[in-house]
Design goal:
This protein is an alpha+beta fold. 30% of the residues lie in helices and 40% in strands. The chain has 1 helix and 10 strands; from the N terminus they run ββαββββββββ. The strands form 3 sheets. A 5-stranded antiparallel beta sheet has the order 3-4-5-6-7. Strands 8-9-10 form a 3-stranded antiparallel beta sheet, with helices on one face. The longest helix is centred in the first third of the chain and has 54 residues. The protein is rod-shaped. The termini are far apart.
Length: 182
């Protein structure tokens, strides 16, 4: 800092340019670090979102498979193609949990109240379990138990989520060992 001939004090042009240069370097470094952290967070979310959706979907279907109605027949458990219908009981009300892929590429669980009269449709509640689903596929294999009026059912599920850069695929198989009426 120099004194001018009039007695006032100030910075020289060189000092101002040096201060601006150092400040610009610090701001650029902070911005670069912040930008890199934001990109890493976004990539982690892109990977974790389908994983969370798959975990939520598999836990929901596992819970419903554990609540299969005691009076359910093997033919009442319908898991094939893009839908899976599971007869459950909610309190004293017979229900059907139906898992499907809707037109918006969302993984949906519909809870349908089963009416005693098949001509009446019961109440339907929908819950979205996951988004950006590329493919959903169910397979069901029924194996009768020898010498018993029972069967075990193996249900396998494949879910693919549309992710960047590649789709993420999950496979889950459940063996339902219930005494189901043939």
């Amino acid at each position: 800092m120099r004194k001018s001939p009039t007695g006032s004090r100030g910075f020289t042009l060189l000092e101002l340019l040096l201060a601006l240069s150092i400040g610009s370097i610090v701001v650029a470094a902070v911005y670069g670090t912040f930008h890199t952290a934001i990109k890493a967070k976004t990539r982690a979310e892109d990977v974790m979102t389908p994983l969370r959706s798959a975990r939520y979907f598999f836990s929901a279907i596992k819970s419903d498979l554990q609540r299969i109605r005691a009076d359910a027949h093997v033919v009442n458990l319908e898991c094939a193609g893009e839908t899976c219908g599971i007869p459950i009981r909610s309190g004293n009300v017979p229900m059907r949990a139906v898992y499907l892929l809707n037109s918006k590429k969302e993984l949906v669980k519909e809870l349908r109240q089963e009416a005693a009269d098949s001509s009446k449709s019961g109440e339907v509640k929908q819950e979205v379990l996951g988004q950006h689903v590329e493919q959903l596929h169910f397979e069901q294999q029924v194996k009768p138990c020898q010498g018993m009026d029972a069967a075990s059912v193996l249900i396998s599920m494949n879910v693919s989520f549309a992710c960047k850069p590649d789709p993420v695929r999950y496979h889950y198989a459940v063996l339902v060992e219930k005494t189901l009426l043939p």
